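Cont'd.
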Amino acid sequence: MAEFGHFAQCLAWLIAVVCVLGGFYGAARGKLAWYQTTRAGTFLVFVASFCALGALAFAFVQDDYTNQYVWQHSNKEMAAAYKITAIWGGMDGSMLLWAALLSLAGALVAWRAPTYPQMLMRWVLPVVNSTSLFFLSVVVFLTNPFRYLKSEFIPPDGNGLNPLLQNPFMAIHPPMLYVGFTFLAVPCAFCIAALLAGRLTNEWIRLTRRWTLIGWAFLTTGIILGGHWAYIELGWGGFWAWDPVENASFLPWLTATAFLHSVMVQERKDMLKFWNIWLVVLTYGLTVFGTFLTRSGVVQSVHAFASTNVGWVFLLYLACLFVGTLALVLWRRKELASERKIESFLSREAAFLVNNLVLLSICFATLWGVMFPVLSEALTGAKQTVGIPFFNAVNVPLFLLLLFVMGVGPLIAWKRSTWASLQKMFLVPFSAAFLTGVVLVWAQVGSFWPILSYSLCVFVLMTILGEVHRGVRVQMAAQGQQSGVAGSVARLMRRHRVRYGGHLVHLGVVVVAFGITSSMAFKTEKEFSLGKGESSSIGRFTLTLEELGEAAEKNYDALRASVSLKENDKLLKTLHPELRLYRRNKETTTEVALRMGMREDVYVVLAGVDDSGKRGTFKLFINPFQVWLWFGAMIMLLGTVIVILPEMGLRSILLGEAEQSRA
Amino acid sequence: MNKIFYSILAVFVAVAAAMIFMATRSGTSSVYIPSQLLSEAGDKMRVRVGGRVAESDINYQVEPTIELNFSVRDPGAPNPQQKIIPVTYKGIKPDMFAAGRDVIIDGDFVGGVLVASKLQTQCPSKYEAPSVDKLYPKKQG
């Protein structure tokens, strides 16, 4: 199987070379035959890459320990599902997965090609294939996952996957990110193809709108799943630590979000053309940069992926990408020049520009923090680092400004807004936010930042509700009073799907902001020791140790506590925090016991047991409104899905109209 | 030239740069490996040390308070000549903590002891293991 997999990936590489060279030649010389060859070749790259991926999966399922990568990342005890997910448990397999997903994106583009303008597609296909080619080159020449184990005999068992990674959220988190990365590579490819072809209208943006949205949705999901995994698995009570590996996925998310907004300005006002090109190239570049960051060992991370020497390849690729884009932009600068100007500070253009700048500032600050050890060493010779306080100090105010702009942007008029219309739109939201602030200050809830954050949440919430209210009123006026409020909201959603889908995403962001603010500002923690039958209280909750015992599981020994959680003497849940000792590598892990609630999460970790084995020491975190972060993320995704799925909605709209006309 | 575009841009660049500058000044710590830290005499506040948990004396107690005491040495193969730094951490033993693992310690170096305020075990995605030969010693003959 290893031979087959290796052969398949080499074949994919070879076809990709043909597609890139032939495709560019055909596009430059206007040879249709080469375009058709490239299109067919793009499908073949996809088939061959997935054959390679399948061969690797097969090797994992078959426990083929002649394969070095399989031996390193799997063992016989692991559940079959985790044997599959172990494919992306390390560098070699995750690069193959990424290359395969890129070839899938390429095949999807090639499949849809007949619906796009052919003059553009002639350039798009070779550009898309060149991204696949880069990753396939890395796979074939540098991180081949089909290497044989250097050993004189076949080991009876594998090394096993890090137990922390054997978690459903961690299993699907990397593929989500990679799907997001690959989908976001498509608009970048269209952009570069548009530059090459000299088709610099809004065409490439319009054609890739859905790719961008789907990529963004996957990336968002991936980041949230990663945060959720950290929360329930790592046992320190938080979900985000500004670690380089987290930031690596967050950086492209920021620029992708900025891009999603700034393209609207280009579509409506024909401005920001240079800006959008750079944003989309930067987004793709940052996904590659993230790989460099986490795989090269230039910065210290708790997730130290094995320091490999492949980092420089990514840097070289990035340099080529940016120099190439710069050359193309300079070449096409005359066509890109725009006559239009932003006419007023009080306009949607200006609000979107501020939104973009805030997102880019967060991106830059985060990048600065990540790269600070490298920068400080280069400049002063002494290596210095910045921690979580740095990221919070810079990014919290920026995020709050973003929240404010999120309330203003969607409502303010294009071109120029009058004071009268501003008053009409924002008087109620602003008053509500101000009132919230006053009440919170009076009630002495927390300090400046959380109060500001809550007030801004109310502000944005009110702007969204105001929009829905105005829309519903229009609908009801048009329909008479017969259909009711719920019917009007549904009709509003259908008629202005993109607009209200966007509002729903923003509503999700507000809920996320509420959850994050609460859990950041009002987290409490407590340490205590309990013997059997003893209790400890915190706030409304009482925890009683019911049982403390040992258990031998398949590949680990566990110390397991049963702790009953009572709220005002009413039993809520029995929690089972655990300490595990994995026999294979003598490593311990903690299993968090969690009681999620609307008002707060109760998060219990068994820190240890005393020498007699009768007393357990626990660490308890109370995280207020934590669960709203996950809810908010789901609302964001729901909103994105509503925006993405127009064709499916079309049928129901037509049917809905038919019913109405019958009525 | 688009005046509004550039004025918004300029204000932003200035504000963001100022914020980053201020936040950087107020919160950096120096990065060391254990031997570097020992070679520079004296106490040091706010350091980050990347080292490997020494093979000797790991002491974890939960009563009366949670406390983890261990030593770190430079990453790489053990060297009997090398001095180790004692570390004390008042907190839960992190997941995957064990002798021979690489850790990142944030804290203060006072009186020859590293008082950790944060302790993280490096959890490699490539799950490091001893080489095959060590795990399965060659059969003789």
